[in-house]
Amino acid sequence: MSILRRSALLAAPMVLALAACAPGGSLPVEKGFGANPVLPEAKKQALPVVKIAKVVGWAAGETPKAAEGLKVAALASGLDHPRWIYVLPNGDMLVAETNGPERPADSAGIKGWIASKIMSSAGAMTKSPNRIVLLRDANGDGVAEVKTTFLTGLNSPFGMSLIGDTLYVANTDAVMAFPYQAGETQITAKGRKVADLPGGPINHHWTKNILASVDGTTLYATSGSNSNVGENGMEAEANRAAILAIDVKTGATRVFASGIRNPNGLAWNPQSGALWTAANERDEIGNDLVPDYMTSVKEGGFYGWPYSYYGQTVDSRVSPQRPDLVAKAIKPDYALGAHTASLGLAFYQGTALPATYVNGAFIGQHGSWNRNPVNGYKVLFVPFKDGKPNGVQRDVLTGFLNDKGEARGRPAGVAVDKAGGVLVADDVGNVIWRVTAKSGA
Q1: Are 408 and 61 in contact (CB under 8 A)?
Q2: Three-state secondary structure along the chain?
Q3: In a designed cystine with 65, which of 50, 86, 188, 399 is the match (CB 3.0 to 4.6 A)?
Q4: Global pTM?
Q5: Low-confidence ranges of the chain (pLDDT < 70)
Q6: Whole-angstrom Cα distance, residue 6 to residue 57?
């Protein structure tokens, strides 16, 4: 064992104990939500606040708690780290069973090594299954009677999108294309690479989501940053902290929008037609900074990372500064709370929920690690009107934390099934939950 490794082993318990004892949040959680979140003074953390909800899983008969007027049940259980969901036109549901690839440079040094141990406690360091499974609920009873392996041989897959008879899958380092026939339960054909995506030995934010344009000519791909605030050098951030536009025919790739630290969810707003994303903001400057957010995405727009956040609020940790970019940074539309790890994003136009949910957005919040007390670990709903957030967010699905603060599960991707049920991928609970109205399907 190396001296460095031995030092890390000896130091880790003390470091984690000190980090866990850091003071709690100074603001009520709700102050970090909405169009104008409260942004307190930044407090650089020489030792990052660490508060992890240890994963214990769901006991028999346990489920999350649905909001008043709603109910929740397991569509499928016994999955292996289900992270993302895609609903096919015939109603079949594809689930990416996935986790991060090997990233040797992302865990280098004592800090990186300790971070990997922290993530292990949160259930985030399991080996990636690297496959997509198909779920089918042909009789419409809310339980998938078919659960089968649909596609294998992938590399930390995440986003999926069907254009015509071609299924596109975003691996962590490339977009792949596979032939698809409606109703089939397995693809065995070898995939074709459409375009490279940023990967490499750091690959700090490994998840890559994709969404097809309405005309099917373009795939929009999310690409998270390779660092917290550029500490690995901006040369490591090429085509990162961005949403990319990929020409389906040629694979030509360009930056559609930039300065978005870690975008995940992608969706078309059903009223305005605008592209929206859910994004994770930076860490290590306080329990209440910086709120994650969802926002409409403008072509050519710059959203601040790493130089500023929420418009022109400068992050003094970044060197050199770029006042020219800060001056044009776009303020996000709606804050989703500090350190909530907001991943999933789905607009609702179904009929299985009350009409008050129509056109609004569901957000899956995976849960914090850099806040004490913790934040997130739930599914939220934000009402919309005329294509814009209109009203206060409310909890839709809670109970992912037990009364000891342990995690039964962690919400990730969200989607709407063909019958209008809201699907939630619980990646450490290994369940796909389905939310409907109490009197509905």
Answers
A1: no
A2: CCHHHHHHHHHHHHHHHHHHCCCCCCCCHHHHEECCCCCCCCCCCCCCCCCCCCECCCCCCCCCEECCCEEEEEEEECCCCEEEEEECCCCCEEEEECCCCCCHHHHCHHHHHHHHHHHHHCCCCCCCCCEEEEEECCCCCCCCCEEEEEECCCCCCCCEEEECCEEEEECCCEEEEEECCCCCCCCCCCCEEEEECCCCCCCCCCCCCEEECCCCCEEEEEECCCCCCCCCCHHHHCCCCEEEEEECCCCCEEEEEECCCEEEEEEECCCCCCEEEEEECCCCCCCCCCEEEEEECCCCCECCCCCEECCCEECCCCCCCCHHHHCCCCCCCEEEEECCCEEEEEECCCCCCCHHHCCCEEEEECCCCCCCCCCCCEEEEECEECCEECCCCEEEEECCECCCCCECCCEEEEEECCCCCEEEEECCCCEEEEEEECCCC
A3: 399
A4: 0.94
A5: 1-25, 108-125, 440-441
A6: 32
- Number of folded domains in the chain? 1
| Residue 121 pLDDT | 56
Task: Tell me the chain's radius of gyration from C-alpha atoms.
Answer: 21
Tell me which residue range forms the domain holding 292: 3-437
Tell me, what's the pLDDT at 223? 98
The CATH number covering residue 411 comes to: 2.120.10.30
What is the rounded distance in angstroms from the CA atom of residue 175 to the CA atom of residue 197? 7
Instruction: Give the up-direction half-sphere exposure of residue 365: CA atoms within 13 A in the CB hemisphere.
Output: 33
Q: What pLDDT is recorded for position 46? A: 83
Residue type at 215 in one-letter notation? D
Instruction: Specify the pairing of strand 65-66 against strand 394-398.
Output: antiparallel
pLDDT at 370: 94
Buried b (16+ CB within 10 A) or exposed e, 407-433: bbbbbbbbbbbbbbbbbbbbbbbbbbb
Residue 50: CA count within 13 A, CB half-sphere: 22
Distant-in-sequence, close-in-space partners of 422: CB < 8 Å, separation ≥ 6? 346, 348, 350, 352, 353, 362, 379, 396, 414, 415, 416, 434, 435, 436
